[in-house]
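Problem 12. The chain below contains 550 residues. Write out its predicted structure in token notation.
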Amino acid sequence: MKLNYWKTLKVGLAFAIIMVFWTAYDYVVPLLLEHAYGLPNSIRGLVMGLDNLLSLFLLPVFGRISDKTHTKWGRRTPFIVVGTLVSVVLMIFVPISANSQLKDGEALRAEITATDSPDYSYTDAAGKTYNAEQIYTMLFNTGNADYCDHDFLKQGGINDLQDYLEIALNPKDADGETTEAYSRYVETGINSYASDQVYEKLTKNNTTSLIIYMIILFFVLVAMATFRSPAVALMPDVTPKPLRSQANAMINLAGGAGGAVAFLIYTITLLINPTGFIAIFVAVAASMVIMLALFLWLVKEPKMVRECEALCAEYGISNDDDDAPEQTEGETPDSEEIKNYKRSRFASFLLILASIFMWFMGYNAISSNLSIYLTKTLNLSSGLGGVISGISMGISAVAFIPVGMLAVKIGRRKSIMLGFGFATISFILIYFFASSPSAAAVYLYTIFYLIAGFGLIIANVNTFPMVVELASSGDTGKYTGFYYAATMSAQAITPFIAGLIMDKWGSKYLFLYSTICVAIAILLMVFVKHGDSKAPPKQSKLEMLGAGDD
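Solution.
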């Protein structure tokens, strides 16, 4: 008995559909909100968290509904089909609803950030022209002579306003290229100022566009929520418990392939056109339809479920609770030992969910602000930022299969703590060494984020199997919903909290905040006693579990 990798990858097409959308959503939507509406970090974080707040309530509901659904196509497939088709129809209108506002915002931004003239100045709509010193006052709202208190001056040791103005007045070198000093000390501030002006002059005066955008986004997110839990619950439906960490590695690999498709779509599009958001969403929708067609062609859910049941019967495996203490003769089901076992099991369940919650508090704070961090803090173009992020994710993705085997060797809990440890180390290194716009910072960020990506894979491969390990075969969808309740509740609030931190103390503190969250996740996982993968008993066919293909 061993994992059927090809069958598991086919099942993973459902998760690939989900990841095409969410990978594009997490990277592109913050850019769309930034370019079209110029929202402050905190408000943008609130918008990015609303989808997760919605999912917090819907995912457990639809997971449970799918548990109780019985059709000739299976329990999960109808939700996957209907949810995908409704989502792709609606999602096209997300960028369309913001397109008019985007054009106005880009026009104002271009006027403010223009640096073609050697004598740098800015003329507002009323015809008033500001010189470099006045521009500085506008950008940073100082209004006094204590200019050196601002972070942008402190970063490179600029201790005099005149030095700053010298850089601002000479943005180009002899070859006509923007100087590194200008990019580091002036451009980031001007870009922030431009966003503020878009928000103050356009968004506040015309909230209709933002309201329409949010209404359309709401319906898209509802449609996506209808099939996420059923799609993910399909893997444990067709996989015996001892193989689920390896199977989840393959599911995540399929999801990574979906994310790679989204990465290629938005990276190529943004390199060609930094505001090509409509083209991105159209291409993502088309990719989802193609993957759905492949899923329907390759996956016959009822047949796969029957094969899993036959395999479990052959090897004496139960997909229900099979680690409870055996009852002795005359012992009642409510004996003290049984009660203690149930309490311990429930405590582990809550600790696992709490650890997952804190892990996503840390990780999603970064993923939901990553495109903004790369473009505004490291001063990269949106396309180049996507390339760097994609390379890090792509290289770390090669670890999916060995990570699946890691749980067989050391257990799920230890594997998860190892992954959390990698993430903690990388986040703190980014905080200290990759939080200012320079070539060295970009290289260091890429290396450190690669370490975080590896940790992410280790954690994601094993956290979901730990949750469904505690579920019975009839409750897989419900427990999948519990898992997403933990992840989505974190993702509902952490973008807003992270945005507040970035607004108050600066973008680098985003990674310090994430470090603290993941460290708490490690501490919680220390006390978990149930949900780990169990070593197969010797002298039986179970010795072959997890062996994989030769």
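Discussion. Residues 336-367 form the longest helix (32 residues). Students who got a different answer should revisit the alignment rule from Section 12.3.
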